[in-house]
Specification:
By secondary structure, the protein is of the alpha/beta class. Helix content is about 50%, strand content about 15%. Among the domains are: about 1-205, no CATH class; about 215-515, Glycerol-3-phosphate (1)-acyltransferase (3-Layer(aba) Sandwich), CATH 3.40.1130.
Length: about 800
């Protein structure tokens, strides 16, 4: 009878259901057609089982509708925790065979010590709609607690195209039997843990219950801090509390998101079409981290880098595709234009002014709104850089949002708050051309509906997009480690602003940027940009470029910048094909082959992509530069000089390596280069280049990647040496002027080379590491350490550039 029911329903289910399948780990994919595999699901429902069958087939997993012989006893492969409820509320559903089935499985392992069956939790979600604080008729119809067949009919009919199947990490029943036993208590515990697991997983996928705008505003007006502020503002400005309350409500309406699940579902379909049109693929790394955090009950706060307006869409889309609730997104008020603003707001965006200094009412409401989101359990996303990077490098973080996050913790939020740094990378950023215009002084183009239409008309193949989730930062653990007494500042009504807040927040913000850079993604465009921009005349033959790409990738595989970095699997030849397809380079064909080069305009644009990953090759570049410019050096001398330079560059490029990491990576690089016969070590322990033109040329390209960085340091050192003592403002302005001259004389196109902020970063690094100090008048002078650094820097710069700097 059951087989006939499955047969009759299989066609309608195939027509109505389109399920997204997400295995939490690779374990589920490696089970093949093993017969000793069982599943545990929530509902004993024909539509659930048939949908699960479709999902299992897509992963080459055993059929969940099959029966399995266990020690002569024929058992269902699927353990169902609950039967459907009855149409009639007074009729209780019968018990499932979950308990006897799980008990029989455990006892089979007790009898047969060689048996090791696998139990895979499979959670089926029909739609991703969170519950509401206010329940309406549609919510009753789509109730998923244990739906009867009539409700299930409507669920499959309306939500079948939004089904989600989550396969969790497989459980070894042998291990479970050995540790927990095989009695009824162990079986009940297994089923109870399965129910808890499914509940947490469902909340992670749908998010907590929704509050509508009126409910949010009511909660905010009941907030003690806002209530007191309204009284204070009314008294200070001579207005009635009702007038101030209206101003407060206007601010709330300007800020608050009006999340609608239907917009997310529609957006998923539109963005799937858009990505297929725009990108040749989206590479996602470490998505399993998000699921682990969410199911563990963490409040997830996504903190990505900011490359493009596309970031808002791409990251939200990827999070949704990972089977998780989409976050509430802090968006600049400049994006609140029609029609984009209302759509973004309904997709979860809440809007923030660029500055609200001096506006106590706005700042308090925004802070308490953010705290409300945290307390309700909504995931949140904000950008610590404040705006999009125009140079491709990470910007210095703005700490306001992180400070408000930590202040929310001081209200006693019990759930752990965890920051998840996210690296976003692209092979094409649609705004790059406008970024260079802005850097040259043109005004920032205001966002508008016309700009959206114009951008849509230009849609084309943008290569690949990259989303890499970095190492999470648990704020509770971070504060406990770096500020052990932080809980003493907790006050649910009026939390203070302790003295430790600003320095701790600054350190957290820097750590976020470091973790973003650790998760960098190398790709065809960024690698090609890095290589061609350091090559003479910005050109190489195709075979040379392919060889260099293979070399640069091989170095990262041998001595990776970090364990979080994304390294492409394609060969140099495939990467060159990709860059040519994307029209990022000029290709000249002659009788001897192809020459790959960059035009003047392409140099400007490719510098942006180069800067996305420049930090990942800084240490190998320094090692190669030392080997190129010094005839011979011992390992200890190389270690010392590398650390001397890396510690200066570290803060500017948000590098993560400690002293021990720098030494370990430096020596690993030396041994790798020796194995590849690029360098050699004498019996006396001195390292030097091999007398091989190919080896020298190969290392020279990588050595050139740090040219502009050391030149900027040489520029600042020249000003200090010739004008000491010198006021900070003069030092930075004179260094900027000299950098502009060098840019003209030596055709340096990098926008950050002549950026005053870049000179400020150099000055800060020199001061922090005590190469310069302030005298009694507050002017900078060199210290005793400066001469050694000056000698190293001058040694690493090409003679013609050095002469231009010294004689300017």
């Amino acid at each position: 009878m059951r087989s006939l029911l499955y047969f009759l329903l299989s066609l309608p289910v195939r027509l109505l259901v389109k399920c997204k399948v997400i295995p939490d780990t690779a374990d589920a994919l490696q089970l093949g057609d093993s017969q000793d595999v069982f599943y545990v699901i929530r509902h004993q429902s024909a539509s659930d089982l048939l949908t699960l069958k479709m999902a299992c087939k897509s992963l080459n997993l055993p059929d969940p509708l099959e029966k399995v012989d266990v020690n002569g006893q024929v058992m269902e492969r699927c353990i169902c925790l609950e039967r459907p409820s009855s149409i009639f509320p007074w009729v209780k559903p019968a018990k499932t065979r979950a308990l006897p089935s799980s008990l029989a499985l455990l006892q089979a392992h007790l009898k047969d010590t060689n048996r090791d069956a696998t139990l895979i939790p499979a959670n089926l979600l029909w739609g991703r709609k969170p519950g509401k604080a206010k329940v309406n008729v549609s919510d009753v119809i789509a109730d998923e607690a244990s739906p009867n067949f009539l409700r299930k009919f409507f669920i499959v009919l309306f939500l079948g195209r939004d089904a989600l199947v989550r396969f969790s990490q497989a459980v070894s029943l042998r291990e479970l039997t050995d540790t927990q036993g095989a009695d009824e208590v162990a079986a009940r515990k297994l089923l109870r843990m399965s129910r808890i697991h499914f509940f947490r997983q469902s909340v992670a996928a749908t998010g907590p219950r929704l509050l509508d705008l009126d409910q949010k505003f009511t909660a905010l007006f009941a907030n003690p801090a806002i209530k007191q502020l309204i009284k204070d503002e009314a008294k200070a400005k001579g207005k009635s509390e009702q007038q101030i309350k209206q101003q407060a409500r206007d601010i709330m309406e300007e800020i608050a998101a009006d999340y609608r699940p239907v917009v997310i579902r529609l957006g998923d379909r539109v963005l799937t079409w858009l990505w297929n049109r725009l990108y040749s693929g989206i590479e996602v790394k470490n998505g399993d981290r998000l699921r682990e955090l969410s199911q563990a009950g963490h409040e997830i706060i996504y903190v990505p880098c900011h490359r493009s307006h596309m970031d808002y869409l791409l990251l939200t889309y990827v999070i949704y595709q990972q089977g998780l609730a989409t976050p509430r997104i802090a968006a600049g008020i400049n994006l609140n234009f029609w029609p984009a603003g209302p759509i973004f707001r309904k997709a979860g965006a809440f809007f923030i002014r660029r500055s609200f200094r001096g506006n106590r009412l706005y700042s308090t409401i925004f802070r308490e709104y953010l705290g409300l989101l945290f307390s309700l359990g909504y995931p949140v996303k904000y950008y610590t850089e404040g705006g999009r990077s125009r140079t491709g490098r990470l910007l210095q973080p703005k700490t306001g949002m992180i400070a408000m996050t930590v202040q929310s913790m001081l209200k006693g939020i019990e759930r752990p708050l965890t920051l998840v740094p996210v690296y976003l990378g692209y092979e094409h950023v649609m705004e790059v051309a406008s970024y260079h215009k802005e850097l040259k002084g043109s005004g920032k183009q205001k966002e508008s509906a016309f700009g959206v239409v114009k951008a849509i008309r230009k849609l084309r193949n943008y290569g690949k997009g990259y989303v890499n989730f970095g190492e999470p930062i648990n704020l509770n653990s971070y504060l406990s480690e770096h500020q052990p007494d932080w809980k003493q500042s907790i006050d649910p009504v009026n939390p203070p602003k302790p003295q430790w807040l600003s320095p701790v927040v600054n350190n957290i913000a820097d750590q976020v940027m470091v973790e973003i850079n650790k998760a960098a993604a190398l790709n065809s465009v960024t690698l090609t940009a890095l290589i061609l921009l350091t090559s003479e005349n910005k050109a190489l033959t195709r075979s040379e470029l392919e060889s260099q790409l293979d070399f640069f990738i091989a170095v990262q595989k041998a001595v990776p910048f970090s364990d979080q970095i994304y390294i492409p699997e394609e060969s140099g030849r495939e990467l060159v094909d990709s860059v040519i397809t994307l029209n990022k380079v000029d290709v000249i064909d002659d009788k001897m082959g192809q020459i790959i080069s960059l035009s003047e305009q392409a140099c400007l644009e490719m510098s942006y992509y180069r800067n996305n990953i420049l930090h990942t090759y800084m240490l190998p570049g320094v090692v190669c530069r030392l080997l190129k410019t010094y005839d011979k050096l011992t390992t200890a001398e190389i270690d010392n000089k590398v650390e001397q330079l890396m510690q200066l560059i570290k803060a500017e490029l948000f590098l993560w390596q400690s002293h021990d990491d720098i030494v370990a990576q430096t020596e690993a690089l030396l041994h790798y280069f020796e194995q590849q016969q690029y360098i050699k070590q004498s019996k006396a322990g001195y390292w030097s280049l091999n007398n091989d033109n190919k080896a020298i040329h190969t290392l020279n390209i990588m050595a050139a990647t740090i040219s502009e960085t050391v030149q900027r340091y040489a520029v600042v050192l020249k000003i200090i040496n010739s004008s000491s003592p010198i006021p900070r403002s003069n030092l930075e302005s004179d260094a900027t002027a000299l950098a502009e001259r060098m840019s003209t004389l030596h055709n340096i196109n990098a926008p950050e080379f002549i950026d005053k902020k870049a000179q400020t970063a150099v000055v800060n690094a020199l001061r922090n590491y005590e190469y310069i100090e302030s005298n009694e008048q507050g002017n900078f002078i060199g210290t005793s350490k400066l001469a050694e650094l000056n000698e190293t820097i001058e040694h690493l710069i090409e003679p013609r550039v050095l002469q231009s700097i010294l004689h300017s």
